[in-house]
Amino acid sequence: MPTWAWILVVVAIIVVVAVALVLMQQRQRAGLRERFGPEYDRVVEERDDRRQAERELAERAERRDKLDIRPLTSEQRGDYAARWESVQAAFVDRPREAVVLADDLIVEVMDRRGYPVESFDDRASLVSADHPEVVDHYRSAHAVSTQGEDSSTEDLRQAFVHYRALFDAMLTDAETEPRTDRADEEPVNGRPAVEHRDEQGRSI
Predict the structure, then answer these.
(1) What pLDDT is stored for residue 190 in this prediction?
(2) Which of 1, 47, 173, 184 would staple 53 via disulfide (CB 3.0–4.6 Å)?
(3) Alpha carbon 170 to chain centroid distance?
(4) Residues 181, 133 contacting (CB under 8 angstroms)
(5) Other CB atoms within 10 A of residue 87 CB
């Protein structure tokens, strides 16, 4: 075969490989967008480097997929739902304490389901792979819960609403029951959330 023919073969191979790599990258990007939703855009914007952001998200997904995340039993869901209602009732008179208790209860639910709970960053990272639509709620609520006395009553109310959004998502097994991601809709087992109001008469 003449030299020019070999050159054409080599060029054709390079083109095919390049196209395959581009298609693979596009499929991976589409998969990450679908899985992480708004979290994908947040990480890309935060990192200011799409490839770095996608590597980070792919590592999160891989780490999450190696975990054995277990759905709660009906009995466990009922117990946690009742405990949440108790914490929610406490918000009226003790909002700061209720926010801390809400954080603790969510960590307990995550631990029961099989998520690592040693650090907040780990929890938020792994939750984002399963519930990207509510992980920002978790970050916002946790930030308020760690402010101590600097948090206003309105900050605490918003934090509690954010915690409730994540609690609803974590309590219901996505594979067996419909899940709502809005804090003002039915959170668990088709039962409406118990509504309480703060001292200004606002629903929490």
Answers:
(1) 36
(2) 47
(3) 9
(4) yes
(5) 22
For residue range 50-76, what is the model confidence (pLDDT) as tens digits? 889 999 999 999 999 999 999 999 999
Cβ–Cβ under 8 Å, residues 134 and 169: yes
CB-CB contact of 156 with 142 (8 Å): no
Q: Is the dihedral of CA 167, 173, 179, 185 positive or negative?
A: negative
Q: Residues 109, 72: contact at Cβ < 8 Å?
A: yes
- Cβ atoms 78, 189 nearer than 8 A: yes
- DSSP annotation of 48 reads T
Task: Measure CA of the first residue to CA of the last residue in the chain; give whole Å.
Answer: 78
Q: Is the dihedral of CA 186, 191, 196, 201 positive or negative?
A: positive
Asked if residues 113 and 69 have their Cβ atoms less than 8 Å apart, the reply is yes
